[in-house]
Amino acid sequence: MAAVNLMPQIFKTVNQNVEFYKKLLKEAVAIPSISCDVKHRDDCVRMVHWMQGKLQEIGASTELRDIGFQTIDGKQYKLPPVLIGILENDPKKNTVCIYGHLDVQPALKSDGWETEPFDLQERNDKLYGRGATDDKGPVLGWLHAINAYKAVGAELPVNLKFIFECMEESGSEGLDELLMEKLKPEGFFDSVDYVCISDNYWLGTTKPCITYGLRGLSYYFLEVECAKMDLHSGVFGGTVHEAMSDLIYLMNQLVDKDGKILITDVYKSVAPLTESEKSLYTNIDFDPEAYRKCIEAHKLPHNGEKEQILMHRWRYPSLSLHGIEGAAFQPGAKTVIPGKVIGKFSIRLVPNQEPEEIEKLVINYINKKWAERGSPNKMRISAQSGRAWTENPDHPHYQAAARATKLIYQTDPDMSREGGSIPVTMTLQEASGKNVLLLPMGAGDDMAHSQNEKINVRNYIEGIKLFAAYLHEVGKLPK
Question: For residue 363, with 0-12 CB atoms within 10 Å meaning exposed, 13-18 middle and 19 or more buried, which class applies?
Fold first, then answer.
């Protein structure tokens, strides 16, 4: 089929199969593949097998790779396997490696969902369900795009390799070792020319974007434990230095009311802002007032200045407090004095910030504040980290994706960075040695980790067309 006629035929096929695409997403969402809950480990395995069947249906050869065990509370649990797939191996064609994940965050209707989170429901041209946008919808989008090529009798313009895991929402445990210590030495990446991930979102709700940078994540566990004394005496005589008081003191020393991180020298290695980078923020289509209304805030930080908001979301580090383990959190009045509490917080890292450097700064700062506190209790701090990632948005791979995006949405995409983290992006870059691109399907208001997660029907269907057009454009790049 002539290239000039190919895309319209594929787009027509996609339009004719909308109800089938919704049905398949409903099947995928119905599997509660919650990776952080070992009670759902069998569901995670079931999800991987379900997707393996779908890959086999499009003609891919598949393999399930074992990634070992996970230790939780002293017990070992087998990790769900990683699904590897290969579709076509024509040496004349470029090869694209597609990564996606099949696991989801926890969700209960009682959390505030309007409908059951694992029963995909359509309302107002939106498909609501856990995993609809993160990441089951985009993963299925690739399969639908491939099937559209097959439906019109056209051969795929590229070879494809797939890596689908079911532990991304729990830190992709075991995946780095598989990629770097097994797949890379085995030659899996030798033929790969480009890597594409669709596990992020547009900056807003109307303008498409392509993402060339992610922040890293440095996660901390701050543990305070009381001396072995009669905790009851703290109620009556104030003779115990409470662990909770010490922990609250330490966590209150981390960030100020404006979001500025108080840890000494944490901003020192942040890459300086260049004039060319500064112009990117000025030209990006982002309306702070619309954003303020979307998140229902009465005011925005940084005086609502667009450039400052975007820079603090993408290019500057930020610190978040996540919770306290061991505290009495149940409803009602309680006077429990915990003997040990663990505070959890994270720092989003940016390019030029190395995790080891930031961990050292954080630990030194906490130790200094602990010494100033003068508490008789015990304090320990530990960390787990992943680096920030960035690419060159002028790379031919990005320009191919931009052409595909303009074909679908009739506008040039914004080249954006992202405030979140996808640690495997850096690993795939290192394992393949090739350009990595993030091509979003979902919109900025999809509520990926929150209640009422959704994907717009428009984004889902047009996203399938986008993936098809992207494969077409990458197929035209010089081999």
Answer: middle
Question: From the candidates 103, 391, 418, 473, which is the catalytic residue?
Answer: 103
**Final residue before a domain boundary, out of 329, 363, 386:** 386
* Residue 329 burial (C-beta neighbours within 10 Å; 0-12, 13-18, 19+): exposed
pLDDT, tens digit, 9 for 90 and up, residues 290-339: 888 877 789 988 889 999 999 988 889 999 999 999 887 777 877 777 88
168 is catalytic: yes
Is residue 472 within 8 A of residue 146, CB to CB? The reply is no
Q: Are 442 and 459 in contact (CB under 8 A)?
A: yes
Domain end point (choices 339, 369, 386)? 386
Residue 225 annotated as catalytic:
no
pLDDT digit string, tens, across residues 362-417: 999 999 999 999 999 999 999 988 888 989 999 999 999 999 999 999 999 999 98
Six-digit token string for 168: 């991304």
Of 43, 134, 165, 168, the active-site residue reads 168
Cα distance between residue 32 and residue 343, in whole Å: 28
Q: Which two tokens stand for residue 285?
A: 């289509």
- Give the per-residue pLDDT at 233: 52
Pick from 199, 155, 124: nearest CA to 449: 199
What domain count does the chain have? 2
